[in-house]
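Recall from the previous chapter that SMILES is a line notation for molecules. Here it describes S-adenosylmethionine.
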Amino acid sequence: MSDLELVEGNAKLVEDERGLSLVEGDLVLRGDFTRLLNRIRPANLGRELLVKAAKPRSLGPDPVAVDATAGLGEDALLLAAAGFSVRLVERNPQVAALLRDALRRGQENPRLAPAIARMELVEGDSLEVLPRLDAPPDLILLDPMFPARRKSAASKKKMQLFQHLECPCDVEEALLHAAIAARPRKVIVKRPVRGPHLAGVKPAYAITGKTVRYDCIVLPRDGRGQ
Ligand SMILES: C[S@@+](CC[C@H](N)C(=O)[O-])C[C@H]1O[C@@H](n2cnc3c(N)ncnc32)[C@H](O)[C@@H]1O
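With both inputs in hand, we obtain:
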């Protein structure tokens, strides 16, 4: 531990042979894309709710996505495996450090490397990044924190630590407005299965699972200035 030591509350970033972790007492948070290896296999990927919601084939060749609430990048990896080039925006410096380290380790895994090569981390606030994109992306994904889902998450301890880092997203409505203003073809909002529509914006369609729902807001091409 040295310059990697930090930070918020009693949580510390610690580096060992397994990579960078955020540790607080017995809670450990580490990015690990190998957990998703089975889910990104071609036979399984199409069954992912997020991939069903994104419909990458409907977006033409080389679709571009922005994950505006990147976290540890798991949703972004699913999108990258499905063919998107993904810009991952994360505003929390500790989470961004974990994500950067997970991407570095993932590049060394031949089964992850092709998807990871399409993922680019931007450390910053999406409220500032989205208005400055060079061009409208095909897709913007929003997954703001919502405590109800986290309470029931299998990896409860991990999420406890995540919640220490990040108060429930205080800017989720502003994020949705910034996402729409960035003129993507589609905004996908990950919600608790029975949660209200974010900012009351009704999606064109939703893909619903047992615990989460992907609300898909489809924007008219006119709205993109084309
Ligand atoms: C629920 S987590 C996302 C998990 C992610 N979908 C995954 O698969 O790992 C939400 C993340 O969004 C980040 N976040 C919240 N508001 C943000 C903003 N305005 N700009 C960038 N990141 C933000 C938080 O720091 C947190 O890491």
